[in-house]
Amino acid sequence: MINISPIAPKLEARGIGKSYGSVTALRPLDLQVRPGELLTLLGPSGSGKTTLLQLISGLVAPSTGSLFIDGQDQTDVPAHRRGIGVVFQNYSLFPHLTVEENIAFPLQMRRVAAKEISSKTSAALAMVGLDGFQYRFAAELSGGQQQRVALARCLVYEPSILLMDESLSALDRKLREAMQIEVKRIHRETGSTIIFVTHDQEEALALSDRICLMNNGGIEQIGTPEDLYERPDTEFAADFIGISNILRGTMTSVGTIATDDGNLPPAVGCDCNPGEEVSLIVRPEHLSITAAANGLLSGVLIEQVYAGSERRLLVKLASGTVLTIRQSAGLEPHSLGEHLHVRWESRNARTVRRQGRDKAHSK
pTM for the whole thing? Predict the structure, then answer.
């Protein structure tokens, strides 16, 4: 089903899919990307996100469906005529050219006047914070600086859509987080439409206006970062994005969920029928230690990890299921082997049907 937007989409895929012989890389799907939004394609390896990006860029022809940009059918338009910029993981800078020459290159290919090239290149350098670096060569730059040059080289010719394919994954954690902030700033200042591909869930949550979570060659769920984190539609979505406590069971006739650790109260989510297999999903920060009389589950503390601002407790239930609980590091620590009682508020939990792919994923 196409995601309906009150604003005409910048990009729209209609039933687009890709097969290589008998192998399906991308099942036919519908997708709309709004003007000026940063949409992240998130998913594990083999989920179809890179294939979808290649179809959008024109590097690969679809087996089915069509692609529209600004309402115009671009399905058969070659990549260099789509007005799309691509920032790759490996930067792809010309080592024999200076920073300024690298950034100016796409303008020169488009036969832009020399004076305009100079002004646009200077503006792009300033935008990515590389004033004063114009005469350096790529080998003289750090990884983060090279990534900024690659970004400026795309932004300089004002592409209709900017595609970023795992563009920050080669950077170390601290530099990657700094570049995430830069990408958000540049996106805000330019109003560019950006499609960002990553397998890093934290990166997707930090950067995105919306996340398109992909699985098994199709779209699992699409929505804001808060939607996917707080309101996952499937067990896969809950398990892939962030840490989730997943309690599997069966819906009873009285509306509770029968699990190996007892009957649990239902939560918001599916309107499930008695006998249906369901999963109750609770994030670690929504679990709390309580008195025995108030507990919904109980188990033994088997590990606790100090992580600066928080402490993570691992509590093993009688069934063997291990719950992860996040507590403020300022609270009194518990002792390993201690029997703890756990509860949560129903409004902070989520019930989803256990679909076939969720069962397979959980094995």
Answer: 0.86
